[in-house]
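Quiz preparation item.
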């Protein structure tokens, strides 16, 4: 059963979402190329979330042992903190979740650090726009497959691969709840019907090359199978009678 949120519950999730958006922005702004590590950013995000009175959603989630997922270049998702400095020209996915008063929000944004290649910039632009294409389908009466198909169509039209092995999800009292899968590929008109008060995360992961990915021995870090770049954008969305509302904005 998909739990449908009331207006006041959606507003609670928006409060969590504002904290997430602020943490992502402040992490990005803190990056000094050649110096800042993803471990530094993980500590910064923890501080920002806790100072706002919230709890990092990812810590201890199914055994995950960090506050953030920060995924650099060919890391697709679930990058764990490391001591390697972020470098000029990297693309860095900062994925953060926060829980305030029992309500979760989850968002991710991929940033170019300093001057990046035109190819990398195009990947970021297309991935971000694929999320927007998906969000535009998050309307009362549509189905999950309408979101999935819109994302896939836009990504593939632009010559990229959309990751199959990881998907978006319902969110609310839990980081991951029903609907358990909001895929970034699939058929329009299929899947669960979207109703007012349904809150979901849409999170396309888009690869420059093959959509295939591999998980490292740590059980978390997911990389592209071919070593090419990958980008990831995510928002927490509420489906309302007035259309999709983005809850992870400042
Ligand atoms: N945004 C990702 C997701 O929704 C991050 C989860 S990381 C985890 O699945 F550690 F919490 F699993
Ligand atoms: Co998510």
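Solution:
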């Amino acid at each position: 059963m998909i739990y449908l949120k009331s207006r006041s519950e959606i507003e609670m999730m928006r409060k969590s979402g504002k904290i997430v958006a602020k943490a992502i922005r402040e992490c990005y702004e803190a990056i000094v190329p050649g110096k800042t590590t993803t471990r530094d950013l993980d500590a910064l995000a923890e501080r920002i979330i806790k100072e706002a009175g919230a709890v990092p959603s990812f810590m201890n989630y199914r055994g995950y042992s960090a506050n953030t997922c920060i995924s650099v270049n060919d890391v697709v998702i679930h990058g764990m903190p490391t001591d390697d400095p972020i470098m000029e020209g990297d693309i860095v996915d900062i994925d953060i979740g926060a829980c305030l008063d029992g309500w979760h929000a989850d968002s991710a944004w991929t940033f170019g650090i300093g001057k990046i290649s035109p190819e990398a910039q195009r990947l970021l632009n297309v991935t971000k726009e694929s999320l927007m294409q998906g969000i535009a389908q998050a309307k009362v009466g549509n189905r999950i497959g309408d979101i999935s198909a819109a994302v896939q169509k836009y990504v593939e039209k632009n010559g990229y691969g959309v990751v199959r092995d990881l998907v978006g999800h319902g969110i609310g009292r839990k980081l991951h709840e029903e609907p358990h899968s909001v895929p970034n590929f699939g058929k329009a008109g299929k899947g669960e019907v979207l109703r007012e008060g349904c809150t979901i995360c849409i999170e396309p992961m888009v690869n420059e090359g093959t959509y295939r990915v591999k998980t490292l021995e740590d059980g978390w870090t997911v990389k592209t199978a071919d070593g090419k770049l990958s980008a990831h954008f995510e928002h927490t969305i509420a489906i309302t009678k007035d259309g999709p509302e983005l809850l992870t904005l400042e």
